[in-house]
Design goal:
heterotrimer; A mainly alpha (353); B alpha+beta (159); C alpha+beta (367); A: 353 residues; mainly alpha; B: 159 residues; alpha+beta; Alpha-Beta Plaits; three-stranded antiparallel sheet; two-stranded antiparallel sheet; elongated
Chain lengths: 353, 159, 367
């Protein structure tokens, strides 16, 4: 009864992912607050656990405003287009051991599917900026589009390294091939993936999109009510999706001793999530031209170096002993980062007016 | 090379394990200073000679005093009104009083629902058990106030 | 065939999360590059000059608190100094030391806030700001102990200070002065070599030396452009000649230099505080004489080194209890005149960072 498996899984994913997003919102607010030596939300429900629920209820009760000369249809469509791809990522991520682990049992082009749908939310962001009929939103949308499109390239290239090491594009096979987690085999690849994913998610230090201090709120300035919830929750769902992909591809998915696989998966996803908001709490943000320079002059060469290294190692049989590969990779990774940080300079700065 | 960022993140992580320094307000309260200039003025009727020095010293003219002559050559207060809404609680009236008859209050939770309720008359500003005076410029009151919570010594809530 | 583009005019309006008060900039952009900038202010104008004409000299002191509301003691200090020069009143020594202690504590507090908000504008989501606020809370507790309030102190009077320090003040201040250098080192560890901060602020918003002098800039803005000019050394007032401290300067005049100069000034303020704590004598804290001051006819312009720059008071007296004319030279206002030159050619994010690094307070700009 294939369609029963399909419906059950779809419901499970939507409920589970949205639940995890709300938990992620709570965790982030309390975590960042703890870094700042304050408690964070602790009034709504025990330990503040109902805070996201309270936020959601508050936002739902707000009036839905569409700017007068904005495009109504696009204004309504944009949040949907920005939110749904995040949910679709979870269709292929394997949660536990075995073939029936994902919604789509063992899609054999899982990686290609991931790359394809992560590009869709860019369209949503730009549509939102355009339909708002607001200069701030338009500038925010332009910047976000430039940023997201540029960072797709290093992101995809880092995934190529994983596919080479595992010998397959299917996520289930990739997890099974990780007898040693790929983060040790390709630290450079993980670094490139992590930074590129942070930029795709519009997270600090790449969050000039929602830089409150600059352009108020970027492309979602003119959104209120349920549409804003889609953007807000969508951001956290995207973050969790990127963390889930990172955990699957680099940290070994559901593998681990002692505890049940599902729990290991959750631990790894939330470990990456903690690192993401730890970075958010510490670093200032980059300017838009520095962001572009970072993608094209630093991450892209590193991603290419990573592919080269992995290809060399995969093709020489004698280096197959895994721990030698780990050592070689770490040394090569550090060297590459050092070289490129010296070579690539951000030209830019003052333009003669 | 990224080392500066890593040092910064290490510092932030260290801070995550330090105790929190905020106070959960309605449940925990800090003890304010002994000389607190709370949003409250307190009038001691026994010492007041209705000279209106306080009204003259006020930069804004918040104190309205109307006096009436009493038998045996004294003045009595016919009408006293202090506008707590306009007052900026600078304390110049407290310093100006030659008889130590007007003081700053202690209680900082003074919100009302209407602005007109902030104009207080003589009965409402009188010194009493519920409306105590603070030690601003009044050493005799300063001596009996509790010690202040100081963050320098690591204190985060009143004892 | 070249693409025809049009510049857009963006109004970073009076209500904006990071314009440090009600400040408006009409910025003209060509893509993301700033080609024109017009500051518009006056949204907080309260008429200080006119208000002074109908208040006595002592009644005006609480109003000077509200000029640069983040550094009230310095404003009080400047005003009282001006009136004392006009009226020829001599201030007892203990009062002078107390004033210098208050002024230097105020400098530390104001610079902590300035740096914290500069980093906030650069994007560090409140974390450095909250760490600096922790130290500022300690200072505010001390101010609360002395004067009863945390923001508008009304502590100094013409002829001294209003009343003496409580006995718990000096030990607490000593503890603060001992612990603070470690905290400043912590802030340096968090930020001074942070690559992102360096990329955002090094070389950005350069104010060349000549332009800074021509624009009458003062304070950390001027010192970061390479001019070694500090009124505590060039035109000394009160008991500053008795203390031993340095004037930090920097060469380039970009945002990063302004940030470094402020951090170094905090360290120098701690040096002054240590020396003042060691030297403070006993004695009266207020000059004898009438509390209702009637200066003789004449005029005076007196200036001090406030945390934001040169704060000057010009007072004309006609012998009565209220000044005939009073004018405040607000340092933030004069520093702001160089904003347009500093911002042209940079991008939107830099305009915010430059504005944050100049460190303006709208109370002083608009008076």
């Amino acid at each position: 009864m294939d369609w029963l498996h399909w419906i059950a899984f779809a419901v499970f994913i939507v409920v589970f992912v949205l639940g995890m997003s709300m938990f992620g919102i709570w965790l982030e607010r309390r975590g960042v607050a703890r870094l700042q030596m304050r408690p964070g939300p602790n009034r709504a429900g025990p330990l503040g656990l109902l805070q996201p629920v309270a936020d959601a209820v508050k936002i739902l009760l707000k009036e839905d405003i569409v700017p007068e000369r904005g495009d109504r249809l696009l204004h309504t469509l944009a949040p949907i287009v920005a939110f749904v791809p995040a949910l679709m990522v979870f269709a292929v991520v394997p949660f536990w051991r075995g073939e029936g682990a994902g919604l789509v049992p063992d899609m054999n082009i899982g990686l290609v599917y991931l790359v394809a749908i992560s590009s869709i939310s860019i369209v949503g962001a730009f549509t939102a900026g355009w339909a708002s009929n607001n200069k701030y939103s338009l500038m925010g949308a332009m910047r976000s589009m430039a940023q997201m499109v540029s960072y797709e390239v290093p992101l995809v290239l880092s995934l190529v390294g994983v596919a080479l090491a595992a010998g397959s594009l299917s996520l289930v096979r990739i997890v099974e091939a990780q007898s040693v987690p790929f983060i040790l085999l390709q630290p450079l690849g993980f670094l490139v993936y992590f930074l590129a994913a942070l930029a795709e998610l519009n997270r600090t230090p790449f969050d000039l999109l929602e830089a409150e201090s600059e352009i108020v709120a970027g492309y979602h300035t003119e959104y209120s009510g349920m549409k804003f919830v889609m953007f807000y929750l969508g951001e956290y769902t995207h973050t969790l999706a990127a963390a889930a992909i990172g955990a699957t591809l680099f940290l070994g998915g559901w593998k681990g001793p002692l505890l049940p696989p599902f729990l290991w998966f959750l631990i790894k996803v939330f470990a990456l999530f903690v690192v993401i908001f730890w970075i958010r709490g510490t670093l200032p943000r980059l300017r838009v031209d520095q962001l572009m320079a970072f993608a094209w002059k630093f991450l892209l060469p590193l991603a290419l170096v990573n592919i080269f290294l992995v290809a060399v190692e995969m093709s020489t049989q004698s280096l197959r002993t895994l721990w030698v590969m780990v050592a070689v990779n770490i040394v090569a990774g550090v060297l590459a980062v050092y070289l490129f940080s010296r070579l690539g300079r951000v030209r830019g700065g003052r333009v003669a007016v | 090379m990224g080392l500066g960022i890593v040092k910064g993140m290490a510092l932030t992580l260290r801070h995550a394990f330090r105790p929190i320094i905020t106070t959960q307000y309605p449940e925990e309260k800090l003890v304010p200073s002994k000389r607190i200039r709370a949003p409250q003025l307190v009038w001691e009727e026994d010492r007041c000679t209705v000279c209106a020095s306080c009204a003259k010293a006020c930069p804004q003219g918040n104190i309205t005093i109307v006096s009436e002559p009493l038998p045996d050559n004294k003045y009595g207060m016919k009408h006293l009104e202090i506008d707590h809404g306009r007052c900026m609680f600078c304390g110049l009236c407290v310093e100006a009083c030659p008889f130590d008859a007007i003081h700053m209050g202690r209680d900082y939770e003074q919100a009302t629902y209407r602005r007109s309720l902030l104009v207080l008359t003589r009965e409402e500003v009188r010194l009493s058990e519920k409306r105590k005076a603070s030690g601003y410029f009044r050493p005799r009151f300063e001596a009996e106030m509790p010690p202040q919570t100081l963050l320098i010594y690591g204190e985060k809530k009143g004892k | 065939m070249a693409l025809r583009t049009e510049p857009i005019v963006l109004n970073m309006g009076p209500q904006h999360p990071s314009t440090h008060g009600v400040f408006r900039m009409r910025v003209t952009f060509d893509g993301e590059v700033i080609v024109g900038l017009d500051p518009v202010f006056g949204y907080l104008h309260r008429g200080f000059d006119k208000l002074a004409e109908s208040r006595t000299y002592t009644q005006f002191i609480p109003l000077t608190d509200r000029l640069d509301y983040l550094a009230s003691m310095s404003n009080n200090f400047g005003y009282c100094l001006a009136v004392e020069r006009l009226a020829g009143i001599e201030v007892p020594e203990r009062a002078e030391y107390i004033r210098v202690i208050m002024a230097e504590m105020m400098r530390i507090s104001s610079h902590l806030m300035a740096i914290g908000f500069f980093l906030n504008d650069c994007g560090a989501f409140f974390t450095p700001l909250l760490y600096m606020y922790r130290e500022r809370e300690k200072l505010l507790d001390l101010f609360d102990m002395v004067s009863g309030q945390r923001l508008t102190y009304n502590y100094m009077r013409i002829g001294g200070v209003s009343h003496d320090l409580p006995p718990e003040f000096l030990p607490a201040l000593r503890k603060f002065v001992q612990e603070m250098p470690a905290f400043i080192d912590e802030y340096d560890q968090l930020l001074a070599e942070n690559e992102i901060l360096l990329a955002r602020s090094k070389g950005v918003g350069i104010l060349p030396r000549e332009m800074a002098i021509n624009a009458s800039a003062s304070g950390p803005v001027l010192r970061a452009s390479g001019v070694k000019w500090d009124l505590r050394k060039k035109d000394p007032y009160s008991v500053y000649p008795r203390f031993d401290f340095d004037i930090p300067t920097a060469e380039t005049g970009d945002c990063y230099d302004r940030y470094r100069v402020k951090v170094q000034e905090m360290r120098q303020s701690l040096r002054i505080l240590e020396q003042a704590l060691a030297q403070i004598p006993e004695g009266p804290v207020r000059a004898e004489g009438p509390h209702l001051v009637r200066p003789p006819r004449g005029e005076v312009y007196s200036r001090i080194e406030a945390p934001k720059g040169e704060l000057g008071f010009y007072i004309v007296s006609d012998g009565s209890v209220a000044p005939y004319r009073l004018h405040v030279r607000g340092p933030s206002f004069i520093n702001l005149t160089a904003l347009r030159e500093m911002c042209l050619g940079w991008k939107l994010a830099d305009a915010i960072a430059i504005l944050g690094s100049i460190d303006i307070v709208m109370g002083e700009v608009d008076r």
